[in-house]
Amino acid sequence: MNRTIFRLINYIEVNLPQNLKNHINRACKIGEDLSEINNVDLNKVKIALLGHDLYRAYNNKELLKEAEKNNLYISKIEKLSPILLHGKLASLKLKKGFQISDKEILHSVKWHTSAHKDMSKIFKVVFLSDKIEPEKLKKSTELAQIRKIAYSDLDLGLLMYLNYNIKFRINRNEPIHPYTIQARNLLQKTN
After folding, report:
1. Distance (Å, rounded) from C-alpha 125 to C-alpha 108?
2. Fewest CB within 10 angstroms: 25, 58, 95, 98, which?
3. Could you tell me what percent of the chain has a pLDDT over 90?
């Protein structure tokens, strides 16, 4: 087993709550499937998925404090919704704590919550694996349909998920990250 993967698994086992461990394991299984279907580097996908939620258990106050401590830029939307910072912090942790320098992995982790206009195939697999893992499907029948589509057409599945997420946030009167809209509009043009 890749040394980085082994170190991440040990870190997760010691530091994360059980519900996050379970989520990460389910996301990794989806990542394996989507990697094989889309012929992408499973090792990169697995590292990104193991690392994507290292800060997800932090509350808003802790996320803001960690971001400030690490001199991370905090946008207006991240101030309104600090949970968006957990990807940035996880990406930084992978870079500094696990000596990961692969830009594709770090970018995928950094923006796994909002998406981004610059999404490689690996990023798309990481993003969707996080969003369509089995436990999350219980929240909406629409997610089950998105998962089915993602297994046959990654870009269409991603576009459908972004549309779903934007509608969901509008219905709850929540802010929408501008990168989510940019990613959606770019995908919409190509589909």
Report:
1. 9
2. 25
3. 96
- Residues 45 and 50: their CA atoms lie apart, in Å, by 8
Give 151's DSSP letter.
T
The per-residue b/e assignment along 59-93, b for 16 or more CB within 10 angstroms, e otherwise, is eeeebbebbeeeebeeeebbeebbebbbbbbbbbb
Distance linking the first and last C-alpha atoms of the chain? 38
The reported pLDDT for the residue numbered 2 is: 87
What's the chain's length in residues?
191
For residue 118, the domain's CATH number is 1.10.3210.10
The count of structural domains within the chain is 1
User: Which structural domain, as residue segments, surrounds residue 134?
Assistant: 3-190
CA 5 – CA 16 distance, rounded (Å): 16
Answer whether 0.70 is exceeded by the pTM: yes
Tokens of 81: 């919704």
